[in-house]
């Protein structure tokens, strides 16, 4: 399985959620609404979820093993960092 596209939509409001991401797998399957969250130990991803009747949140889609989760998280966080740097550069240029 290859992640063939990552689209990052930064969240402009203050808070722990920094971006919402969509990934495309093998140019054939898309997973939307993966969240980039700022936690106590740094950035991490939260897979798309839905609130169940008991009030708990359940993942709608998620990796089956930790290796796949790490690979997805690493790619998403790399793309997020690039998008964040580009955003900072654009803001700096707009001030001049």
UniProtKB/TrEMBL annotation:
NCBIfam families: PRK13259.1 (NF009749). SUPFAM superfamilies: SpoVG-like. The keyword Ion transport does not apply. Could be involved in septation. This is Putative septation protein SpoVG. Keywords: Cell cycle, Cell division, Septation. It comes from Catenibacillus scindens. The keyword Cell division applies. Belongs to the SpoVG family. GO terms for biological process: division septum assembly; sporulation resulting in formation of a cellular spore.
């Amino acid at each position: 399985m290859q992640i063939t596209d990552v689209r990052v939509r930064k969240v402009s409001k203050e808070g722990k959620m920094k971006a919402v991401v969509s990934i495309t797998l093998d140019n054939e399957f898309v997973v939307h609404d993966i969240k980039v969250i700022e936690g106590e130990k740094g950035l991490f991803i939260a897979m798309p979820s839905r609130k169940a009747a008991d009030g708990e949140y359940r993942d709608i889609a998620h990796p089956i093993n930790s290796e796949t989760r790490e690979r997805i998280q690493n790619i998403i966080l790399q793309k997020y960092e690039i998008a964040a740097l580009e955003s900072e550069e654009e803001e700096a240029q707009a001030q001049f």
